[in-house]
Amino acid sequence: MAENTQLQYVWKQISERVENLISPVSYDSFIKPLEPVDITGRKIVLKAATDMAANVVMNKHADKLREAIQKCDLGVNDFRLVVDGSKEFSPNADIDAIDTFQPSPINKQFTFDSFVTGPGNKFVYAAAKAVAENPGDDTFNPLFIYGESGLGKTHLMQAIANDLAVRAPEKKVLYTTCENFLNEFIDSIAQRSGAQFRLHYRNVDVLMIDDVQFLKNKTQVQEEFFHTFNELKAQNKQIVLTSDRPPKEIPTLEERLRTRFEGGMIADIQPPTTETKIAILRRKALDRKCAVPDEVLEFLARDSGHDVRTLEGRLTKVIFASKLHEEPITLQLAQLALNESVNESESQEDITPDTIINAVCSYFKQKREDLLGKSRQAELAKARQICAYLMCEMLSLPLVAVGERLGGRDHTTIMYARDKMEKLAKLNDKVAKEIDDIKSIVLKK
What we know:
Blueprint: H1 4-19, H2 24-31, E1 35-40, E2 43-47, H3 51-72, E3 78-82, H4 122-133, E4 143-146, H5 153-167, E5 173-177, H6 178-190, H7 194-202, E6 206-210, H8 219-234, E7 238-243, H9 255-261, E8 265-268, H10 274-287, H11 294-301, H12 308-325, H13 331-346, H14 353-364, H15 368-371, H16 378-395, H17 399-405, H18 411-427, H19 429-444
Parallel strand pairs: 2-3, 4-7, 4-8, 5-6, 6-7
Antiparallel strand pairs: 1-2
Helix pairs in contact: 1-3, 4-5, 10-11, 10-12, 12-13, 14-16, 14-19, 16-18, 17-18, 18-19
């Protein structure tokens, strides 16, 4: 508990600064009556007389109050409102509860400079750049990016975050997935921490939600997201959303949300042309400090599908083969490296997702229902991740399809599992052997 003299001094400095930022009527009606009661976790706790007064402060004056707090530079950087007897602004709520909401990590390598543009993504690239340069501009708010998996939606979204971290470090940027938003909303209901949840998602300058197509069939979550969207938009805060389809094609999406998604800029990412694929491969090779001849790049770009990750996987196999055989990368080496997977695929016509699931269950001695269930036990999680990796590698299934086969999991979870196992297989001999052993079981069936 902060000492009363210190508390009064801090609040006096803040309130005097707020008085110069808002109208006299608003100050006298809503800020002046606030009573400082504590300083905890770098937040000053202010007591309002009623829920209505607290809501007006949160909805109308929160930005100015925060601005005053930060300009005073007195060791606090935010505020929290409490109201005696209130559920929404409960004085007994855990002051640090808001900090338990964890945003998804931002990949520092996802920048505008590392994004390779082509005819199919130039427009959306320009739109993302415009958002980073002027967040909140009505022309691009919200920015709704859609396209197939693996074309760069998440890259562009996180490039905005990375650019703003340099361009405007004072802005609060929150990136998360729709699945994470859903899970945290459910937890907030169970823990009765709705006020903290709302503050977490509405106390931002830029909100970015990946894969909003997963809002389908979730009425209560759509309701919460609708109000979050409205509050941020009313304050000219930037909203960026991604999806694998345009708003009008998201099933059971409420009309009021659909119209808001369509109220800004909708931009789609088209599959890369062969020339763009070659440019992407060239960039990836340079990032890895590898010299790859143009004829090899052209070979890798042919018949590689639309997914940029598949494209990068082909390059990874060739680079690995070069290091393994201690030979320079040539067209012959590339053909040899990829022939193994081609030959495998020719003998896999009868392989199905069930074949892989059964092989993984047999190898790790796990029950199928446990593998497809919700348990996060370490052995089960590892088996599940290997299963996801093998489905992606051996069957080239879309991430969404793999997620559906593995108990209805989100495609971002599958992407994480695939990438994790791919890295572990290169670094951990035990994991590499387990994967090879399971592949042998699958191919023999």
